Amino acid sequence: MTTRRDFLKTGVGAAAGIVFCSCGLQQSALAQQQPTRHTLPVTVNGKRVKTIDVHSHCHFREAGALLGDEGPKIQVPPVNGAEDAFITVESRLAAMDAQAVDMEVLSINPFWYGRDRDLAAKIVKIQNEKLAELCASKPDRFVANASLTLQAPDLAVQELETAVKKQGLKGAAIGDRVGDMEFSDPKLHPVWAKAEELGVPLFIHPQAQPELSKRLAGNGWLSNAIGNPLGTTIALSHMIFEGTFDRFPGLKVIAAHGGGYLGSYADRSDHACLVGPKGCNPDIKLKKKPTEYLKQIYFDSLIFEPEAIRHLVAQVGASQVVLGSDYPYRWEMHPVDPIFATESLSDDQKADILGRTAARLFNVQV
Q1: DSSP of 74-112, one letter per residue?
Q2: C-alpha angle 260-261-265 in degrees, rounded to nearest 5
Q3: Both ends of the chain: CA-CA distance in Å?
């Protein structure tokens, strides 16, 4: 199957009149070379597979209203598809059908970590109630990750237990840090302990990297294209090197955007403390090589091309990869297709990535 990368490498793109402009490619010629689009119901080797997108977003205006005039600016950034984050059920279902997605795992990117405890708690309460209500209205199409007041770990523990045991939510969505506090900080251990106890996954989705704003300014939306994967990479690396995954071996973490750069560059982590021991803490004795921890982390498939998926699977194992699109943001409008186009995957591996692994993680009936 011809990928976009193959299409450009062969030179056909130039002959067909593709031109580079500002921040992207004109799509007219590419549209004529589209791969086969999969539709519902999705089957692998003749067997029906329930496709589950673990990386999809939403917002609720009621939560933003608590921030007054600032709310809309936070909930509706200048991003294509942002308005669709305020879900109209029938429109969202139509979009899912077009993407060949049976079920979405909904998340809300945290915009409340910098708020005071009481305001953040009110935002989280509204969001978790609304998420539970939405999922109950269409239980065959939606499940959700709870929001957590992570800057107040004691509250977050209570919120997570309520969300899972009383509201029917299936996990929690978190950023890539809380202010200046990394996820390896002992203050957050009670939250990870509760998630481990409940057996529910935590979905790490990065936030902005304000300290890099000057370097990431300019053309290319670098704050997202580079900054977001970097944020996830840093978060996971702290959890690995500070012993968080040793302390909580049953913790289930899903990393957005293919886990940032670790899948492609993880072997450097194995060498860091050998080459530069002064940069490492001799009191922290990891139980495994850094790269081995990747095999207990889950990664979404939002890395676009079959070759990228092949490489990620070679690094972490097919059992650790799950389907992701970033909908309603227009990063990957056909998330199922690259999985089928990855020829190195067996049929069982494709079925696992498309939905079976996520069904186990989120305790979803298939």
Answers
A1: HHS-S-TTGGGGB--HHHHHHHHHHHT-SEEEEE-----
A2: 155
A3: 29
- Pairing verdict, β 20-21 and 47-49: unpaired
Could you tell me whether strands 103-107 and 321-322 are parallel, antiparallel, or unpaired per DSSP bridges?
Answer: unpaired
Domain boundaries, the chain: 1-34, 40-361
Instruction: Specify the DSSP class assigned to residue 37.
Output: P
Q: What is the DSSP letter of 186?
A: G
Tokens of 227: 């900054």
Secondary structure in 3-state letters for 211-231: HHCCCCCCCCCHHHHCHHHHH
- How many C-beta atoms lie closer than 10 Å to residue 81's C-beta? 15
For the segment 304-321, what is each residue's pLDDT rounded down to a tens digit?
Answer: 999 999 999 999 999 999
Q: Chain-centre distance of CA 65, in angstroms?
A: 26
CATH class of 40-361: alpha beta
Query: CA nearest 269: which of 302, 303, 245, 300?
Result: 245
Please name the amino acid found at residue 229: P
pTM over 0.85? The answer is yes
Rounded to 5 degrees, what are φ and ψ at 211?
Answer: -70, -15
- Interval 5-22: pLDDT, tens: 444 444 444 444 444 445
Give bridge partners of residue 322 from the DSSP assignment.
300
What six digits make up the tokens of 299? 């990664």
Under 8 Å between Cβ of 137 and 124: no
What is the CB-side half-sphere exposure of residue 66 using CA atoms within 13 A? Answer: 17
Radius of gyration of the chain (CA): 20
